[in-house]
Amino acid sequence: MKIALGPVQYYWSRVAMMQFYESMTEAPADIVYLGETVCSRRHELRLPDWLEIAKMLADAGKEVVLSTQVLLESGQDLTTMRKIAANEDFMIEANDMGAVHCLDGRPFVAGPYLNVYSGPTLELLSGLGAQRWVMPLEMGREGLARLQADRPQGLRTEVFSYGRMPLAFSARCFTARHRNIPKDNCQYVCMDHPDGLLLETRESQPFLVLNGIQTQSALVYNLINELDAMRELQVDVLRISPQSQHTGEIVQLFRQVLDGQLGAADAFGSMLPLMPAGPCNGYWHGRPGLEQMVA
Q1: CB contact set of 157 (below 8 Å; sequence gap of 6+)
Q2: What CATH class has 2-164+220-285?
Q3: Are 84 and 72 in contact (CB under 8 A)?
Q4: Are 27 and 246 in contact, with CB atoms under 8 Å apart?
Q5: What pLDDT is recorded for position 69?
Q6: Burial call 97-131: b when 16+ CB within 10 Å, e when fewer
Q7: Sequence-ordered list of residues with C-beta below 8 angstroms from that of 184, at least 6 positions apart, any chain
Q8: By the 8 A CB rule, do 59 and 157 touch?
Q9: How many helices (H) and strands (E) are present in the chain, helices listed first?
Q10: Is 217 helix (H, G, I), strand (E, B) or coil?
Q11: Which of 125, 133, 187, 241 has the lowest tally of Cβ within 10 angstroms?
């Protein structure tokens, strides 16, 4: 199995982003996804900057994929998506069907936001040029097993295996709303929260994380203990979602488990102090997502 580093979901400064990807040239990740998938107002990096980073990572031996925005809200968003789709140097992760059709049959990755839950949908996307698909986060092991049995020949499977789960997108910016300022004058307050803004219940229990127009899980989805099951299901790629600290160490622990250098339980224990919140894996087991199931 290969390890993929998903697109950064948060708004980091240009310097922080550049330093992060420079450090990832040495990380044992095989695939790196690049691009702004959440909000077009996050403008520290533009498409030429992403292409520059992509070239740096490609020169370091990484497979680079450019991700498109999930929720398009303006003509400018559409123009940017078309420019990304027109790129001929790197594969595209299509996060909505508009991006799929813009690719006009060229090879692409079907992102998790396409919500693939059936064999006919996989067949359709494969016919449109999908080389790899990413399992929806809410899907569990049993659902994946059914789709793997009907998977079109040559189509590879990727599973979101670590990180705060992106659960929903909205036209409203909840981080700006928290500051009582309008979305159109948000003052880029997302940058004050490099791992999102934690939302707690009245009982002070972690519930959700606000990340601009995106809502995430408060807990960190972690499937390090499920790698043997994924091997049995013939999963090809594990996706790790970047966090502001310790991403390289997380990638290294996944690699050590995959290579048989470290047991999954030991790696899981080593991860706990590196995570921004506690673990969960409920969706994988067909349970509520915030639960942590133990085999």
Answers
A1: 132, 133, 135, 144, 148, 151, 233, 234, 235, 236, 237
A2: alpha beta
A3: no
A4: no
A5: 97
A6: ebbbebbeeeebbbbbbbebeeeeebeebbebbbe
A7: none
A8: no
A9: 10, 12
A10: strand
A11: 187
Q: What does the alpha-carbon distance between residue 282 and residue 292 come to, in Å, rounded to a whole number?
A: 6
In whole angstroms, how large is the CA radius of gyration of the chain?
Answer: 18
Residue whose tokens read 């990180």 = 163
How far apart are the C-alpha atoms of 95 and 71, rounded to whole Å? 8
Largest Cα span, the chain? 51
Nearest-CA neighbor of 84 among 190, 7, 172? 7
The angle, 0 to 180 degrees and rounded to 10, between the axes of the packed helices 75-86 and 47-59 is: 30
Counting Cβ atoms within 10 Å, is residue 171 exposed (0-12), middle (13-18) or buried (19+)?
exposed
The DSSP code sequence of 20-57 is HHHHHTSSS-SEEEES--S-TT--SS-HHHHHHHHHHH
The series of mean pLDDT values per 10 residues for the chain, 295 residues long, is 98 97 98 97 95 98 98 94 95 97 95 96 97 97 96 97 96 92 92 96 93 97 97 98 98 98 97 97 95 84
Q: What is the number of residues in the chain?
A: 295
Tokens of 273: 């102090």
Number of CB atoms found within 10 A of residue 172's CB: 11
Amino acid, single-letter form, for residue 226? E
pLDDT at 294: 83
Task: Tell me the CB-side half-sphere exposure of residue 32, using CA atoms within 13 A.
Answer: 30
Q: Can you give the pLDDT at residue 258? A: 98
Per-residue tokens: 272: 């706990």
Distance CA 43, CA 98 (A): 22
pLDDT at residue 295, as a whole number: 60
* Distance separating the N- and C-terminal Cα atoms of the chain: 22
